Amino acid sequence: MFTGIVEELGEVVAVEDLGKAARLRLRGPLVTKDVRHGDSIAVNGVCLTVVESGDGEFTADVIAETLHRSSLGALAPGAPVNLERPMALGGRLDGHLVQGHVDGTGTIAARTETEGGTDITVTLPDGLGRYLVDKGSITVDGISLTVVEAADDHFTVSLIPTTLALTTLGTKQPGDPVNLEVDVLAKYVERLMGHRGATREAQEEATQ
């Protein structure tokens, strides 16, 4: 489990095409200082398993499903990436609960400079809009952000200078893809309400 608070702006060192999968080698001196084989590291919001590590770098394999659901397949050597280690039990939850399981990719539709920072509008894949609410949480490329305005097909977030300086969103432009993970609590509520409605219908049919 992650928090969506990026620890380090890393860099892609190499990308190896494995056919339907890929192997990434990434540089991140901070997140690798205590890493071991089998540990998890979130890369642009995608939870990956460390295969090898050393000299401030680590290698991770990316399966076909992950390549399909995320933007990791578009990474090339030299590309910056947001890195975060899992939250330690008992640690501070400064962002929100993030699984590292990307729900889909969006596209930056607009970028507007404001007096206090930057507003970014992101398009949503079909079906994700129902999980967003104004002032709710969403993860964009592994960054925990507060939704300013939510619509069925897009949302807007406001970025402070610190977020712009320390994450990939500082250089993202309209047309660039971003990984999205909606608040898992919203998905659980939807699932529970669906079961509740189905149970009520079954009870009503049984009494007729």
UniProtKB/TrEMBL annotation:
It is an enzyme of class 2 (transferase). Residues 1-96, 97-193 form the Lumazine-binding domain. Pathway: Cofactor biosynthesis; riboflavin biosynthesis; riboflavin from 2-hydroxy-3-oxobutyl phosphate and 5-amino-6-(D-ribitylamino)uracil: step 2/2. It comes from the Bacteria. InterPro entries: ATP_synth_asu-like_sf (IPR023366), Lumazine-bd (IPR001783), Lumazine-bd_dom (IPR026017), Riboflavin_synthase-like_b-brl (IPR017938). Lumazine-binding repeats lie at residues 1-96, 97-193. It catalyses: 2 6,7-dimethyl-8-(1-D-ribityl)lumazine + H(+) = 5-amino-6-(D-ribitylamino)uracil + riboflavin. GO terms for molecular function: riboflavin synthase activity. Keywords: Repeat, Riboflavin biosynthesis, Transferase. Its EC number is 2.5.1.9. PANTHER family: RIBOFLAVIN SYNTHASE, RIBOFLAVIN SYNTHASE ALPHA CHAIN. Catalyzes the dismutation of two molecules of 6,7-dimethyl-8-ribityllumazine, resulting in the formation of riboflavin and 5-amino-6-(D-ribitylamino)uracil. This is Riboflavin synthase. It comes from Streptomyces iconiensis. The lineage of its organism: Bacteria, Bacillati, Actinomycetota, Actinomycetes, Kitasatosporales.
